[in-house]
Amino acid sequence: MRILFVFLTLLNTSFPAFAQEPAALTTDGAWCWFSDPRAIYTKNGNIVTGWVTKSGDIVAASLNVKTADIQQKTLYSKLEIDDHDNPAFLELPDQQILTQYTWHGGSKNGMGVIQHTKSTPGDISSFSEPLVFKPQTPELLEKFKRETYTYANPFILSSESNKIYSFGRWVGFKPNVITSIDNGKTWSDPKVVITSKELNTNNRPYVKYFSDGKSKIHLIFTDGHPNAEPLNSVYYCYYEKGAFWRADDSKIAEMSQLPFHPSDASVIYKATPETGKAWIFDIVINKKGQPVVAYTRYPTNEKHQYYYAVFDGKKWNDHHIIDSGKWFPQTPEDKKEREENYSGGLTIDPLNPSIIYFSHEIDNVFEISKGETKDFGKTWKITPVTRNSTLDNVRPVIPRYKKKSDKNVLLWMQNKKYVHYTDFDTSILWKVLE
User: Short name of one Pfam family for this protein (predicted)?
Assistant: First the structure.
């Protein structure tokens, strides 16, 4: 108990490690956790990101980190009030920016993937008008039964002549993939990537992706949603050269053999009733090309535990980071929380995966901390990024494609109100980290 007291005191102590005060990219913006990359560094050093407003507009923004100049453009007015609809971004070889997002599943207002291209490098106002398309075929719909479109995750592989791969939860309520060889002007027919062994159109594996931009796209995923899967486990695979592979480089399936089942991949964490179900937050690769993963376990829905796993070539080194509190949505009085597994969130620094940033509960407020490990996550040095806040700080992210010359910037949501993913009043903050 004495050690725990000292540790908690350390977490609440102020350190002058981060000089710049947080600033607002917007006072009206939210994002979910499964459309990525939601923020990217561009070749000119700017950050491009986007969000959903509380009135349902989809907005893209550019941040010049050196001057703090912010430019914004509304991509789609009043799409729907739902934070699942935040845009994901990809910089193309000619420095154009491709962005994609969706309605949440689909509704009377619309269904499909929405896409824009920014034609003038550095000019956020030059995004094109929205193009809506539905990645499906009659044959795929007949086999997988359900048509729904949520999330978009676009990546480019230079070793495949700059072919673009875009993933989302589409046909069958399952992870799908489409490809483009003309910078997103046209797309291949979709393939279902992962499915339950017995087709269940209510089952939905959740996936986080990371690409090296060259030859590999890494995936971590679950059996489904932790609300629906009492033993939700965490799995890993990667795509390369037309096939999907386990962590030990054994083959799961060729693209032509898709889909595969979660249990066909590498198991990072096998859920048990004692240790709890899980959900996922981030994946990057270290300098050796090994996957580094951040995820959450739930021994109970009110006890959220952050974990960090690194594959060393033979096994997963899987270690507890910290207990983070419970869910962050503000549950109405006398109501049951609808999203009990909404943790504050973790992000891994892609240039230095021994560093993470995470949101956890301190004195009944969600604050951001930095964690640093030198032993694959066995022990952690923890220092504050935010403290003494009056509003919750959640869902931190380090923008992808960071270069050594780029300033280290952290983005996160700050909640004036977050009752549900359709009922929120939130800001997006940013901070340069020393």
Answer: BNR_4
| pLDDT for the residue numbered 172 | 97
Which residue do the tokens 């890494």 mark?
218
Place of tokens 């956790």: 33
Which of 80, 210, 203, 206 is closest to 154 using CA atoms?
A: 210
Could you tell me the two tokens for 170?
A: 């589409």
**pTM surpassing 0.85?**
yes
β-strands 97-102, 113-118: how paired? antiparallel
d(CA 414, CA 96): 30
Over the chain (434 residues), the average pLDDT of each successive run of 10 is 34 44 97 97 96 98 96 97 98 97 91 95 93 97 97 98 98 98 98 96 97 98 97 98 98 98 98 98 97 98 98 97 98 97 98 98 98 97 98 98 95 98 98 92
Q: How far apart are CA 136 and CA 148, in angstroms?
A: 10
Identify residue 45 by its one-letter amino acid code: G
State which H helix or E strand residue 11 sits in. helix 2-11
- State pLDDT tens for residues 82-95: 999 999 999 999 99
Residue 40 neighbours by CB distance under 10 Å: 20
Task: Name the phi and psi angles at 297, rounded to 5.
Answer: -110, 155
CB burial class (10 A; 0-12, 13-18, 19+) of residue 56?
middle
Q: How far apart are CA 350 and CA 355, in angstroms?
A: 9
In sequence order, the 6+-apart residues with CB closer than 8 A to the CB of 315 are: none
Distances (CA, A) of 327 to 51, 205, 338, 412: 21, 21, 10, 16
pLDDT at residue number 13: 36
Cα angle 100, 46, 72; round to 5: 55
Name every residue whose Cβ is closer than 8 Å to that of residue 406 and which is 6 or more positions away in sequence. Answer: 41, 45, 65
| CA distances in angstroms from 37 to 1, 31, 48, 100, listed in the order given | 41, 11, 10, 10
Pairing of β 392-397 and β 409-420: antiparallel
Asked whether the beta carbons of 204 and 174 are under 8 A apart, the reply is: yes
Q: What six digits make up the tokens of 27?
A: 């006072």
In whole angstroms, what is the distance from residue 226 CA to residue 134 CA?
28
Is 136 within 8 Å of 188 (Cβ atoms)? no
**Around Cβ 80, how many Cβ atoms within 10 Å?**
19
Backbone angle region of 10, left / alpha / beta, with phi > 0 → left and psi within -120 to 50 → alpha? alpha
Please give the pLDDT value at position 122: 82
Longest dimension (CA), the chain: 63
What 3-state class would DSSP assign to 5? helix
Confidence (pLDDT) at 8: 35
State how far the Cα of 136 lies from the Cα of 416, in Å rounded to an integer.
39
